[in-house]
Structure formats: structure tokens, C-alpha cells
Specification:
Helix content is about 65%, strand content about 5%. The chain is mainly alpha-helical and about 120 residues long. The protein has two domains: about 60 residues, Winged helix-like DNA-binding domain superfamily/Winged helix DNA-binding domain (Arc Repressor Mutant, subunit A, Orthogonal Bundle); about 50 residues, no CATH class. Strands 1-2 form a two-stranded antiparallel sheet.
Amino acid sequence: MARLGELEHAIMDALWASDEPMTARDVRDALAERDLAATTILTVLSRLENKGLVGRDRSARAHRYRPTDSRDVHVASLMRQALDTAPDADAALARFADAVTPHEAAALAEALDEAMRRRGARGG
């Protein structure tokens, strides 16, 4: 999964914040402070679609765009990708553990416990 550029990230933030699929105009309006051309928005949406991050509904005259996954799924994928590229995953995990807050550590421990319970229930 490719990292997002700054404008791609802003557009994904707008899409993730919306409860409904958005047109390019909706996205441009959500990013009005940037004064972006509609063609710029369409180009970036097309790139995001090519990366598999955005789906497009072509049934209406104005195509509507939506994220293919939640922000949480995207972040988890980035974390997995980063860990997979580490020459020493154990060392990377140890460094990560040193960097988390006590609240994050507790949430991670709970998530790991739950994931292990689910794997145990599946027998694998």
C-alpha cells in the first residue's frame, strides 16, 4: 500500500469524514481553503482509485467517490506494511512499544488479547 501524498491525504480525510459518497465538487467544497481546481481534485481522485483506496460510482452524471476501507483499516495496513519491511521486526516492535503512551499500550494489549482469542476459537 503506497503512502499518501499531502493532497491525497487531505482528500481521503474529506472522504472518511463524510457519511455519504462525495462528488469531486463536494470534495473541492470540503477543501475550499485550498482553492483547488476541479481538474486537480479529479486527477487525485483518479490516482486514489488506481491505488485501490477509492471506489467510484459511475451511475450518475457526477461520479461519486467513497473510500474502499475505513481509516482504521488503512492505518492498520500501513502499520503492517511498515513492519513487513523492517529487517528486524522484533526490534521494530520493541521500539514501537517504547513510543506508545500508557493508554495506547493498554488498548494494544486488549486488541492483542482479543485477536489471540479469536485465533484460538478458529483453531489457528
